[in-house]
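Re: [help] complex structure
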Amino acid sequence: MTVKKKHILVCNGTSCQNVAHDEIFNNLKKELQNHGLEESAGLVRTACFGLCEKGPVIEIFPDKVFYVQVKPEDAKEIVEEHIIRGKPVKRLLYNEPETISGKESGEKARFKRKQIRIALRNCGVIDPENIEEYISRYGYEALGRVLDEMTPSDTIRIIKDSGLRGRGGAGFPTGLKWELARNNQNDQKYVVCNADEGDPGAFMDRSILEGDPHSVIEAMAICGYCIGAGKGLVYIRAEYPLAIERLKIAINQAKEFGFLGRNILDSDFHFDIEIRYGAGAFVCGEETALIHSMEGGRGEPTLKPPFPAQSGYLGKPTNVNNVETFANVPVIILKGAKWFSSIGTEKSKGTKVFALAGKINNVGLIEVPMGITLREVIFEIGGGIRNGKKFKAVQTGGPSGGCLTGKHLDLPIDYETLVAAGSMMGSGGMIVMDEDDCMVDFAKFFLDFTVEESCGKCTPCRIGNKRLNELLDKICKGNGAMEDIERLYNLSIVIKDTALCGLGQSSPNPVLATLNHFRNEYEAHIIDKKCPAGVCKALMTYEIVEENCVGCTACARACPVGAITGERKEVHRIDPRLCIKCGACLEKCKFNAVIVN
Amino acid sequence: MINLTIDNKKIKAEEGTTIYKAAKMAGIDIPVLCYMDLHDLNIEHKPAGCRICVVEVEGRKNLAPSCSTEVTEGMVVHTHTLRVLNARRIVMELILSDHPKECLVCPKSGNCDLQKIAIKLGIRDIPYQEISEISTYRTDFSPSIIRNMDKCIMCRRCETMCNELQTVGALSAINRGFMSVVAPAFEMDLEDSVCTYCGQCVAVCPTAALTEVDHTNRLIRDLSNPSKTVIVQTAPAVRAALGEEFGLEPGTLVTGKMVSALRNLGFKYVFDTDFAADLTIMEEGTEMLERLSKHLQGDTSVKLPILTSCCPGWVNFFESQFTDLLDIPSTAKSPQQMFGAIAKSYFASKINISRKDLIVVSIMPCLAKKYECQRDEFKVDGNPDVDYSISTRELANLIKRANIDFISLSDDDFDAPLGESSGAAVIFGTTGGVIEAAIRTAYELYTGKSLEKFDFRELRGMEGIRQATIDFDGTPIHIGIAHGLGKARELLEGIRKGESRFHAIEIMACPGGCIGGGGQPLHHGKTEILKKRMEAIYREDQSKTIRKSHENPYIIRLYEEFLGKPMSEKAHRLLHTHYVDKSKKIIYI
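Output below.
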């Protein structure tokens, strides 16, 4: 076997795959063949690098040079310039946005430099469909060590000491969870991997399963050994076909290599993994709902206790962990609790993966140490706000979380601080808003989501969220009264106080947070009947500025409802009673004569 | 024992007790809505969904649903703090905001759990009305049950009855969020589902989301039509429960008053389904003996056990879920249908009117009977043997509407010839009664000896499945009894596997048998009422001079004058039926 001097890693995550991945890959392959480089240069389909905004992304290893927004026709230049001549193709390098002073490129760019990749350690590095690449990165070594040298309680002790907490949202200590499941005696127990990722904009679980499925499989086996379970189940939403495909390949390979099945690595430990598909209900991320769904029932939560550790899947003790939580486990075993707990803050150890979305330059996936500030995440790693606009707020924790504002930018990100600030860690979605976002509309966006995703079991969530949403809608339409603010507040408090599961208990958070931080925007909608950000259509009026109108008739022709009248070369007018505020006139006018109030 | 404090009272409760029950034992009443405790049926429905029963537990972040939160050592609970009252009020307002405001014309008005709790919580205003959408659904009319899901509050009691108690599986929650509702799969009509019309869902529905198909207005019209002769038959379980609707103690027998009331309402003849129950025993008992004798003589082509067939909910159940066993139930029609068949032939010719001018109405504790009388098998040239069936509840409503002072009515007797019955017929109204009645007759016919005692206590009771061996003069006959379709399923699975050793099995779809039928006065969770109704039924049996069906003189005369003998060709034509494979209703996923 010849040692390859260079490797071209081509991102094959869902996002990049959708943008000409195959063409790029095939062109690169052809170019390498044309230059007779098949032996000396490797070409690998990896998974997500995280910089989805700038995809398709390619990295040249070991040079640590990464190219962004690569097109199929760039293949020739990459091979000829970089692989053959050793000169990076400058025009394809990632450049930090202008907003960042002292901008850097390539590996030095803050997008990469500020990250610590533990859960994502193999994502974008290895071919997820090749178990040998995982093994070459110390894969299954943790499992081997655990089975060979450690008792289940030793192993749980390490996880407990590491301070690892659940990455799915609530942050329950993982080691403690394992211990509870271990202490419940039963001849049959289950390890469940919760891959029912549902927060709008969050996709870290998908990326891990697409990019490094073996780390999850290995961790599940370790967990099975610790709690005394012989069976693992991955509950994954059917909307993740690529993740499912790679997971299936990985499970089969692990079986072939003896990492799953009977007498794993010649021990007397047996463990198998099966996949269960979810239909994409958000509430199925709640562990009791998830278990009911796996059992074939309706995906709705039940009261805890009993906790799954006592009575879970089919009534047996069950340990449910999130994908990202599992992905941390093998590294912790290998590098030790001390190493892991040295990263992060006092109560929140290790790293957290965040999905950056919204009005941010580097939309994508990042992994950062706990305790990093929002400012670093948004303005350095995230490359700042798009189009030079002003930062307004960031929503963390998805629909269950709340928004944080400029005054929170220097807060360290960890479980406790976020909760204290009125938001939560959640599964790691971060949606950034700028001055053009209306916070009332934004709260309504999340309520739309929870109204749709409530399982309907308990009254406060089923009807209460609907009523919250209707009140917000009333305000957005300019029909709000000041007492509606009180009603929103009181109803939110009762929903939080009485709802059955985490979904309902947290669903009013976006309302409460925006009420706390942006009450002035609510008041503007209610008192002035204005949407300061210009988002709420019902509160907008389109007008034509007489001085600017030349009477070109372009607007009148564009108006789909005939709301604009005026003779040629004369000033036009918009009839507000007919106008549907579609913005077509604004778009057509070349003379800045159409304005929005 | 666990020590806790509720509303400053020190309380001891057993481990596993819920806050709600612990409070109740201490005399503290926490309002509940979705919660339902059917103690005698071993069903405690506590989905913790409505959130009306929330209480404050010290040290806990949010309020706890008392119906399903278990007590813990040292727990301090407050059931009526300002925070709790505020939460309960808002939750109730939310429920009402998604509920039609038509209490004035609602069939459940005055008998509605939602209304009761709203009153208790002092709700005086329903906010959000100016903006609130109400979740609406297509109303589903079946022959027995109307589903008006606009009134569903998602308490899910019906689901528990349908799935856990009855194992029918017709109802489950569908949709998500605000549009969540309980419905048959894919929101199909009840009529196209596996629903058996047992009506146990209706019996527990706190609102008018599930109600019976009401035929009272149709009946009033028919009674006032001079060209029609309207006659009525009343099922045995009705007389043991009707009094409850008029404030009488559960278990009060009101047979005489009921007859009186029916006569006051204008029925030309007031008859008793019990007469037909005696007839059923003659047919079913003979069929049973025939099959039994052949079996005992070693004829392997005879299938046993024989299953009773008088319960229409049960018939619907095996027609859709046990189609491989369609040949074991008795072919005898139910008493309701035997009555109709005899009324529209034998009796009609006796009073010399055509069957289409004779309207046969039945008063039943049952909703499935409404469906049963519409079955094509029970029609002659499109004219049904029983025109329609009304429930005990509908009858009570009619009596009240007609301004009849039920309590002060004097006792009256049924008319002849279809009004005379034996004690054996009366006990058809309770679980174990049909098989006991059959044994009273079959024993004497089989052994040729007369019974010394008529009470087979080993067949009685509320156990879901009971079994007994009756000595037929040296031949042991194994009897099985199940009530509730879930229990029936257990026995049927045994038959399917070939493990059943029974010769005969009685099955009734409803808990307690007909006394617990879906058309009976609502028990509102007080299942001890069923036991009282059962005792009343056995009291009525005791009080009868004739205790065995084959000794009913009018039955003897019916065979002499009209039918010949049991299982004769004519009896077959009029009194027996066949079953239909409805398995296509089951959706396998």
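Residues 476 and 536 of chain A are 6 Å apart (CA to CA).
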